[in-house]
């Protein structure tokens, strides 16, 4: 199917300014079709829409190009009526789906698509990191990118760009995927949908891993080499956790360093050259922590079918008889549906998480003593009902951590301090209990992703140092923002509560999380933080104290569809604000954009 319209490369960058209390995505430009277009908006997307409508004979071009005025709205309404859609004049998902299905006369566009289609086959799809979350319209993350990549590969997502933004076209693609898989069809990517998707991604990855590894047998590779075999090696090293850069088929210093790490871990000659000896170690490493597995491989004399797994730690990247035994056990229990290939890939990890979730233990996808206890029916070695977070397979038991690393299973004062800092930066909203569980890991991972670190959810010394630096500024700003008010108002908590509603749809007159208008959203969030506000934007403007420049937690006002204050949002720092937009729902916007900067009235302090 040929695509129409100008594809605009999108980028989602996390605000690096210390003033941003919440990890707020700063959208430079979404791809055409991902966001609704309506009256009053302007920019390249509006111009693209106008051009498409003009080609179809619905737009006479009397509005200023790139400005969504009355003529453009009328043209959209005519187009919608002609295609049996509700003629509301808003270019949304259904309108874009028809526009994108129109034939394209440009041969260059078709050739570009052919090139894209041929290249997309080789895209490596990273499994979705957190199956327990719910992705919906307005979400922006690396997990949305993975979701779009897989939906694109499976033929459901027809947009040529993977944007990382959960917009209209992503929602429609999810609905089609859910319908095809006989899941609840609501366009929300929740645990059931994400679990199914990860299972399918894992099946493809496990098969591809086995094939790519066999291509390396008998090969010698060193710095300067290029090609598909180097790509296969990089994929293998990446799965084992030694290589974290781009899979580009170039054997450079980073690839050589990863090979040396593997050689060092497996106690062979460390020279950075990949040869037969190093190849043999690709299949014998479990990604770091199962030196005892070889001695357990030969313990078949036990009368119990899974006794060879006692004391073994297995994780993604592991291979061998122990993995086959685990897959057999998981298959018998109904958690694993893939092939028994001895490769611990995403599909096996997903099955382990299913067992862990069902038995109420820490869910990390790593098979260790606690998971073994549940698999075999023996009592868990951790004992006690309070150990779900602390006795994870992937870490030492009690104590804060070994060295300067905090990870799942760590606990104590250091973890409590970590959680406090993550709360200050807006990444963590759960209880500060000093237990490093899945929620803390997810918060650390999000923080690392924002600051371009390895997003593995492990709080290394580098991560903690950066977190201390950023949270200190956030804490001081939120304190100064709330210093003039009485009571216990805290701007950090206000922003954290507001961010919980990202993606909630816009409803005219809405005042609840099922749907907000702009002032209803302001009133609701402030009320959660002990501040009673009047209902409308104009009333809220009159109730506040004017400030020359906004600080975090202040309310910024705009003049939109009528004169005077008719729209508002909560300032979160770095010239960004969170608000309930009529075409976006609750989202984050940039005050420097041409639309908002030209309509800005001022800021008020309402606490």
From TrEMBL:
<comment type="similarity">
    <text>Belongs to the peptidase C40 family.</text>
</comment>
<keyword id="KW-0645">Protease</keyword>
<keyword id="KW-0732">Signal</keyword>
<dbReference type="Pfam" id="PF00877">
    <property type="entry name" value="NLPC_P60"/>
</dbReference>
<dbReference type="Pfam" id="PF01471">
    <property type="entry name" value="PG_binding_1"/>
</dbReference>
<dbReference type="InterPro" id="IPR000064">
    <property type="entry name" value="NLP_P60_dom"/>
</dbReference>
<feature type="compositionally biased region" description="Low complexity">
    <location>
        <begin position="283"/>
        <end position="311"/>
    </location>
</feature>
<feature type="domain" description="NlpC/P60">
    <location>
        <begin position="488"/>
        <end position="607"/>
    </location>
</feature>
<keyword id="KW-0788">Thiol protease</keyword>
<dbReference type="GO" id="GO:0008234">
    <property type="term" value="F:cysteine-type peptidase activity"/>
</dbReference>
<dbReference type="InterPro" id="IPR038765">
    <property type="entry name" value="Papain-like_cys_pep_sf"/>
</dbReference>
<feature type="region of interest" description="Disordered">
    <location>
        <begin position="374"/>
        <end position="410"/>
    </location>
</feature>
<feature type="region of interest" description="Disordered">
    <location>
        <begin position="281"/>
        <end position="316"/>
    </location>
</feature>
<dbReference type="InterPro" id="IPR036366">
    <property type="entry name" value="PGBDSf"/>
</dbReference>
<dbReference type="InterPro" id="IPR036365">
    <property type="entry name" value="PGBD-like_sf"/>
</dbReference>
<feature type="compositionally biased region" description="Low complexity">
    <location>
        <begin position="376"/>
        <end position="404"/>
    </location>
</feature>
<dbReference type="InterPro" id="IPR002477">
    <property type="entry name" value="Peptidoglycan-bd-like"/>
</dbReference>
<dbReference type="GO" id="GO:0006508">
    <property type="term" value="P:proteolysis"/>
</dbReference>
<keyword id="KW-0378">Hydrolase</keyword>
<protein>
    <submittedName>
        <fullName>Cell wall-associated hydrolase, NlpC family</fullName>
    </submittedName>
</protein>
<dbReference type="InterPro" id="IPR051202">
    <property type="entry name" value="Peptidase_C40"/>
</dbReference>
<feature type="signal peptide">
    <location>
        <begin position="1"/>
        <end position="24"/>
    </location>
</feature>
């Amino acid at each position: 199917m040929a695509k129409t319209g100008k594809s605009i490369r999108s980028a989602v960058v996390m605000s690096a300014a210390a003033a941003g209390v919440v990890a707020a995505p700063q959208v430079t430009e979404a791809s055409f079709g991902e966001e609704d277009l309506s009256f009053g908006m302007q920019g390249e997307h509006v111009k693209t829409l106008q051009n498409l409508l003009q080609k179809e004979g619905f737009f006479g071009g009397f509005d200023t190009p790139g400005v969504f005025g009355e003529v453009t709205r009328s043209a959209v309404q005519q187009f919608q009526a002609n295609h049996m859609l509700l003629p509301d004049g808003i270019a949304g998902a259904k309108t874009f789906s028809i526009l994108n299905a129109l034939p394209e006369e440009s041969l260059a566009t078709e050739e570009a698509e052919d090139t894209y289609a041929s290249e997309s086959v080789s895209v490596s799809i990273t499994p979705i990191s957190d199956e327990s979350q719910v992705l919906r319209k307005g979400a922006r993350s690396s997990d949305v990118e993975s979701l779009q990549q897989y939906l694109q590969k499976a033929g459901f997502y027809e947009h040529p760009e993977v944007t990382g933004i959960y917009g209209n076209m992503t929602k429609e693609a999810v609905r089609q995927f859910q319908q095809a898989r006989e899941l609840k069809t609501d366009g929300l990517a929740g645990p059931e949908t994400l679990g199914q998707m990860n299972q399918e991604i894992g099946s493809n990855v496990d098969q591809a891993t086995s094939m790519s590894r066999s291509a390396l047998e008998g090969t010698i590779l060193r710095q300067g080499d290029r090609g598909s075999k180097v790509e296969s090696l990089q994929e293998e090293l990446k799965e084992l956790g030694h290589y974290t850069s781009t899979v580009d088929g170039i054997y450079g210093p980073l690839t050589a360093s990863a090979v040396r790490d593997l050689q060092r871990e497996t106690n062979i000659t460390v020279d950075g050259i990949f040869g037969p000896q190093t190849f043999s170690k690709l299949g014998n490493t479990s990604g770091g922590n199962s030196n005892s597995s070889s001695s357990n491989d030969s313990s078949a004399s036990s009368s119990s079918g899974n006794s060879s797994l006692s004391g073994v730690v297995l994780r993604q990247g592991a291979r061998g008889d122990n993995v086959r035994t685990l897959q057999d056990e998981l298959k018998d229990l109904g958690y694993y549906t893939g092939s028994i290939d001895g490769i611990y890939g995403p599909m096996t990890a997903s099955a382990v998480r299913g067992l862990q979730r069902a038995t109420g233990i820490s869910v990390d996808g790593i098979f260790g003593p606690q998971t073994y206890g549940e698999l075999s029916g023996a009592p868990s070695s951790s004992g006690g009902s309070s150990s779900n977070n602390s006795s994870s397979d992937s870490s030492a038991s009690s104590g804060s951590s070994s060295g300067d690393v905090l990870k799942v299973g760590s606990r104590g004062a250091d973890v409590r301090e970590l959680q406090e800092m993550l709360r200050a930066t807006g990444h963590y909203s759960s209880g500060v209990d000093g237990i490093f569980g899945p929620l803390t890991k997810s918060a650390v991972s999000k923080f690392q992703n924002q600051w371009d670190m390895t997003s593995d959810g492990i709080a290394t010394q580098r991560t903690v140092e950066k977190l201390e630096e950023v949270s200190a500024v956030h804490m001081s700003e939120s304190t100064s923002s709330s210093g003039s008010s009485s009571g216990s108002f805290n701007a950090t908590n206000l922003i954290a509560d507001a961010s919980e509603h990202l993606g909630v749809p816009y409803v005219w007159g809405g005042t609840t999380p099922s749907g907000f208008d702009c002032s209803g959203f302001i009133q609701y969030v402030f009320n959660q933080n002990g501040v009673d506000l009047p209902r409308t934007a104009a009333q809220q403007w009159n109730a506040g104290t004017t400030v020359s420049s906004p600080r975090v937690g202040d309310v910024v006002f705009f003049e939109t569809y009528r004169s005077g204050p008719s729209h508002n949002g909560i300032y979160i720092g770095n010239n960004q604000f969170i608000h309930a937009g009529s075409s976006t729902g609750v989202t984050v916007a940039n005050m420097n954009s041409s639309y908002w900067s030209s309509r800005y009235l001022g800021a008020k302090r309402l606490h």
